[in-house]
Design brief:
The protein is of the alpha+beta class. It has helices at residues 8-19, 78-90, 143-149, 176-193, 210-218, 257-264, 317-331; strands at 3-4, 31-42, 45-53, 64-65, 68-70, 97-107, 113-122, 135-142, 151-157, 160-169, 172-174, 225-232, 235-242, 251-253, 269-271, 289-297, 300-309, 343-345.
């Protein structure tokens, strides 16, 4: 088998998608860490490199993860952390990685870490060199098969319940933070990374996003109206929301308004003053600024997350990054029609 870095078309397409995302690490607090999502091709099929952590490491023993770890004083930035840790854990030289961008910065549940996930196209070495103390196994899986086996499970801890994506392939079970990051990448870039992804194989039940909408709405006093419009053919249909009922705007024809424009052509649109934005459709008359983020599922737009404020230019980079991360959380609720997710007590 011949191993190649990502094709130039794939690499540039992925780089462009990542550049369109909003990032603001200070959104979350905790100890900084970083991971690398290494990608390469075999006969045109994109593969991802994962690791199975040893039973002797301090956290996440025996779990499948991306190579990476905590930031060290020697690291100039978090990308340097991801590259250094990857070389230490699996023997991939730093010079064999072409970084493509940052996928996101998110906290891990139950630990003090805030992890930045970087994507890179790699020159795969002839042989991996796993760290004797940290890594039990290096796992290489094709994305086109991973995308076809994605499901969810319900995790329960301290009387809290949440739904998370899970991937099970070739005896490997990817769950938790790693599965969320993998799902986020596939939702954003399936059309770039996978040939002919199966459209419609996953669906989001609209009511399942209601709690997330309420949590986002209550997280910031600037958020005066928060809601989802779901894509239904050539229209957007109002889903769960918080704020006044948008009388007369229960449906929006694509590409009308900010919501319709983002549904037709992502990425996220930030409107500092809606009165200067031609075609704006207000959910509330008091709205002065707005953010609309696409809800992406397997590379297609299935809805938009709309947040309005009665303040001009209310949304800084931190707020936009939070809204985009919430859109990914909503996409992570997706499952296969008729599938009943198991409950895992953690």
């Amino acid at each position: 088998m011949k191993h190649d870095p990502l094709s130039s078309a794939r690499a540039e397409g992925l780089r462009a998608l990542l550049e369109d995302l909003s990032h603001h690490p200070a959104t979350f607090t905790g100890r900084e860490a970083a991971v690398l999502i290494p990608l390469y091709e075999i006969d045109g099929r994109v593969h991802v490199v994962l690791t199975r952590r040893s039973e002797t490491v301090s956290t996440h023993r025996g779990q499948i993860s991306f190579p990476g770890g905590a930031r060290d004083d020697v690291d100039d930035d978090l990308l340097a952390t991801a590259l250094r840790e990857t070389e230490e854990e699996i023997g991939l030289p730093i010079g064999a990685v072409a970084p493509l961008g940052l996928l996101g910065t998110l906290p891990t549940y139950g630990t003090e870490f805030v992890v930045s996930a970087y994507v890179g196209s790699i020159v795969r070495p002839e042989a991996w060199i796993p760290s004797e103390h940290e890594i039990d196994e290096i796992i290489e899986l094709p994305l086109d098969e991973l995308i076809s086996v994605r499901t969810t499970e319900i995790r329960e801890r301290d009387r809290m319940r949440w739904r998370m994506p899970v991937f099970e392939l070739d005896g490997h079970r990817v769950w938790g933070f790693t599965a969320f990051i993998l799902a986020r990448m596939l939702d954003l870039a399936a059309r770039v990374l996978v040939d002919d992804p199966q459209e419609g194989s996953l669906v989001i039940h609209p009511a399942s996003a209601d709690a997330i909408i309420g949590e986002l709405h209550d997280s910031d006093e600037r958020f005066g109206w928060t809601g989802i419009y779901w894509v239904d053919g050539e229209q957007l249909i109002l889903g769960p929301y918080r704020g006044a009922f948008p009388d007369g705007h229960e449906t929006i024809t694509i590409p009308g308004g900010v919501c319709g424009a983002v549904a037709a052509t992502p990425p996220t649109e930030v409107v500092p003053d809606v009165r200067n934005r031609p075609g704006h459709i207000p959910c509330e008359l008091s709205t002065r600024s707005e953010v609309v983020a696409p809800i992406m599922l397997e590379g297609r737009v299935v809805g938009v997350l709309d947040v309005d404020s009665d303040q001009v230019d209310a949304f800084d980079r931190s707020a936009v990054a939070l809204i985009e991360a919430t859109a990914s959380r909503i996409a992570a609720l997706a499952d296969r029609p008729g599938y009943e997710p198991p409950v895992q007590i953690v």
